[in-house]
Amino acid sequence: MPKLEIENIEALVKMEGNALPQGEWIPVTQEMINAFADATLDYQWIHVDVERAKKESPFKAPIAHGFMSVSLLSKMLEEAVTIKSGQMGVNYGLNNVRFPHPVPAGSRLRLNGKINKVEAYGENGCKIFWGCSVEIEGVEKPACVGEFISLLFE
C-alpha cells in the first residue's frame, strides 16, 4: 500500500482515528536476532542457541526478543507515513505494550497502525499517539500490541 503523506501537524490532527496504510513485510532472521542480542546483551538461549531451541523450547525454534518487535516500530511507522513539514522526530514512550505471540526466527512482520491522538507539544511540535499492532504472517495473534508515542517538530 502507498505511504501516507501528510502536509503538516494541522493536517495530522485532522487524521486522528484514521488507520495507516498496512506496512510491508519485514523478515526476522536469526542474524537479526543475534545482532539484537549483541546490542542488548540479552543472550538467553531461547533467542540465540538454535539447536537447543529446536530441542528444548516449546516453540521448537529460536524466537526474537519481545523488545525487538517494539524496536521495529520506528522503522515500520517511517515506512507507513510521512509528515512533510517535520524537521525532527524522537521517540517519547510506550503505553500498554504486550507480546501476545512469540516471533520465531524466519517469520515476517508488518505494522497495522492508526493515529490515535495528536497533542500540541511546545511551540512547534506535537505528541503523536500511534496505535500499533505488529502482525506475524500466517499467525492470528500479533507479535506486539501497544501505543507508541513520538514527538514531531516542524
Overall structural class, as computed from helix and strand content, comes to alpha+beta
- The best one-word shape is elongated
Provide the succession of SSEs: EHEHHHHHEEEEE
**Assembly state here?**
single chain
How would you summarize the topology of this molecule?
Layout: E1 4-6, H1 9-13, E2 26-27, H2 30-40, H3 45-48, H4 50-56, H5 66-71, H6 73-80, E3 81-83, E4 88-98, E5 108-121, E6 125-136, E7 144-153
Architecture overview:
- This protein has 154 residues and is α+β, with helices and mostly antiparallel strands.
- The protein has a single domain (4-153), classed as Thiol Ester Dehydrase, Chain A (Roll), CATH 3.10.129.10.
- It is built from six helices and seven strands, in the order βαβαααααβββββ.
- It has helices spanning 9-13, 30-40, 45-48, 50-56, 66-71, 73-80; strands at 4-6, 26-27, 81-83, 88-98, 108-121, 125-136, 144-153.
- It has a five-stranded antiparallel beta sheet. It has a two-stranded parallel sheet with strand order 1-3.
- It is elongated and about 55 Å long.
- 27% of the residues are buried.
Primary descriptors:
154 residues; alpha+beta; Thiol Ester Dehydrase, Chain A; five-stranded antiparallel β-sheet; two-stranded parallel sheet
Brief overview:
The protein has helices spanning 9-13, 30-40, 45-48, 50-56, 66-71, 73-80, and strands at residues 4-6, 26-27, 81-83, 88-98, 108-121, 125-136, 144-153. It has 154 residues and is α+β, with helices and mostly antiparallel strands.
